[in-house]
Structures
1.
Amino acid sequence: MAKPIQILLAAALLASLSACEKKAAEPVAAPAVGPVAKASIQELMKSVVEPASAIVWKTPDYFNDPEAAKKIKPEQADADWAALRKGAVALSEASNLLAMEGRVVVHPGGKLENEGQEGNLTAAQINEKLKTDRAQFLVFAKVLQDANLQTIDAIDKKNPDALLEAGGKIDEACEACHKVFWYPGAPTIQ
Ligand code: HEC
């Protein structure tokens, strides 16, 4: 015959098991949080895109000077490549931030730095264009990301020539989007 303590333990086990079953049967609530586009495009440009691109474009002089490169310690070169890679990764992910739904160019009441300059769109016009031409904006963000993935590849191969070429593609990607979404009427610099 089971002792009272064993019966009690068995009962407790049964109770906890049924509690588990009950819990599992309850519908799991969907997570209440997700990505929220808080910063404006202008803020993203100033806080993420511009500083990250400055890192990527600022390659040490010895990268393209084989004689000078010979005098650089391998640890120093590794550190320089690693620093560049941080900028390239940040810039690559910035493209995803640009592509987020609900991002405005400036917050309500805000102005572009050069608002009113001839040939430039106003903040209100850009916000409107971001809605009507969103597909095109996403293509430009993707072009920037592709250029950055090429940059990361060049960095991983420690190939200065490929890095220079990819850096040029980043520059073109910035310019392509700006020409359409920022200053479509700006005079072309020859
Ligand atoms: C997908 C579109 C897009 C891409 C790609 C893009 N930009 Fe922009 N950028 C904009 C828009 C729109 C504005 C205008 C809003 C503004 O004045 O900030 C802007 C503005 C800027 C500004 C001015 C910020 C200010 O002070 O108002 C800088 C600097 C800038 N971009 C740098 C860059 C650089 C560098 C790159 C490439 C590495 C780049 N952008 C790529 C859309 C883009």
Note: The radius of gyration is 27 Å.
2.
Amino acid sequence: LAATVFAGLLITGTLTAKDPLPTGAGATQLTADMTYLKAGLEKKEEKAADPLKAVAMLIAMNAQNQMDGKDGEKMAGVRDQALKIAGALSKQGGADWDAAVKELAAMKDAKGDAKKTVKLHEQHAFDIHELMSIFKKKNKGGRGLEDDIREMANKPSDAKRVAEAGTLVALIGQYAEAMDGEADTADKKKKWTEWSKEMQKVGKEALEEALKGDKADKAAMVKKVKAIDANCTACHNVFKH
Ligand code: HEC
């Protein structure tokens, strides 16, 4: 299994039944997200506070998904630290950037209780608005993920980029499923559940094609990303205002 290292933290690609992602993909994304978070925290831009909180929450989810592996205590530690970062970024009166940076630095030595599953979507008043802010344009403090998806749905791009977008969409879908507060009728709840589950499915399918690496079919990847884009639009047509 591929092992990746972030700031001295060794993450092996252990997989669990709860992990909705193929082997190793969660670990790869964990490293990418930590790097993204570190760079973002150093810039201390207020407009990026919500999107970076969302990235911290995705790290927590991704780590928790991998807790039954042999790195369980480390993964629980990553989750706990990521939650502290999310807390520091959502302080009343503005983000506490220095605290967030400190908690990220402490991540590499952190150990946590791998037997304890946290209801992540209930932590730090995390909501759909903050979750979706990750998709915002880069100049608005977001990760530019919506622009990326639109581009990749229209022209072939490299497998690594598709893999990252697919992984993030799958993880975001996992949160979205638990955040059905916008759905105020039984019919709308049903639709919300359907689209948020679909989000996980289409994200994972794009990832699976992209994981073929050099052998990935470019046209197939475009099709998979188109399916992601269609899912965003379907849900937004009913729920985004
Ligand atoms: C299950 C429903 C659902 C799905 C699927 C969904 N969204 Fe959203 N999205 C929402 C809702 C609801 C909002 C409005 C949140 C708010 O601001 O209160 C939103 C808001 C947004 C925003 C505005 C964020 C801001 O702060 O300005 C962007 C950008 C966005 N979504 C991108 C996407 C992309 C890209 C996808 C697909 C990969 C996607 N969404 C999939 C429900 C969904």
Note: The two ends are 44 Å apart (CA to CA).
